[in-house]
Amino acid sequence: MRTAVLWGVVRSALETIKREPAAGDVRSGRAAAGEPGPPVPLDIVDVGGGTGGFAVALAGLGHRITVIDPSPDALAALERRATEAGASDSVRAVQGDLGTVFDVLEPGSCDAVLCHGVLEYVEDPAEGCRSARGLLRPGGIASFLAANRTAVVLARALGGHVAEALAALHDPRGRFGAHDPVPRRFGEQALRDLVEQAGLTVHAVHGVRIFADLVPAAAIDVPVGSGPAANVADLLSLEAAASALPEFRAMATQLHVLAGLDEA
Q1: Which pLDDT value is given to residue 235?
Q2: What gap in Å lies between CA 36 and CA 13, rounded to an integer?
Q3: What three-state secondary structure class fits 141?
Q4: Is the dihedral of CA 150, 156, 161, 164 positive or negative?
Q5: How many degrees, rounded to 5, is the angle at CA 236 between CA 232 and CA 241?
Q6: Is the CB of residue 68 less than 8 Å from the CB of residue 109?
Q7: Label partner for 59 (CA 20 to 30 A): which of 39, 46, 114, 148?
């Protein structure tokens, strides 16, 4: 429910990436003969991919995924999930973070980089964006998802924590106090600037979890077609329709920037 918009955008973007089959690949001969064939698998890196919610699903589409995460427990859960899904041959788990990606991967070796919920925690977000760019082949895409500072101001105010809302509004990092578990949040323009200054071209910006965090959980976490869950399909449609509208994505819990590395 809460990642449906993000999944749809990323999946559609991956479908636009074209790769030629390697020499000797049977698909190379078919392409030369003008015959259709299955798409060439993409090499995707999911930084901070944790237990593999995205990675295993992407492997199910035929892609090769490397998940880099600092938590050994999360990576163990990822490997179990991949095995259960029959995708263990397509999913690689590596302990590390955005600052160590080049210890395990060559620059320019990937078709797509997912960086979801990571920039809030890294020491240098600008360097993190440059690392993501450095992994990409020309024509590749990068997907960045980060906490939205406007949303936390609204959330703290609606929760009755007005002083904390005011603190988050004025804090350069969008934090509501010393006990805030998130080191930083981003406004839309600041996030766009980070991505563009890394040498990437922004293709689209979306708001993620605009309404999903406001609707009571009881209306979401039940099977479709029973009771209030009849509203779930409408809620998904509402999230998708509003995600690209500036006036609504300003309220989203997270901001998503889809960017690409231009062809040489």
Answers
A1: 87
A2: 21
A3: strand
A4: negative
A5: 145
A6: no
A7: 148
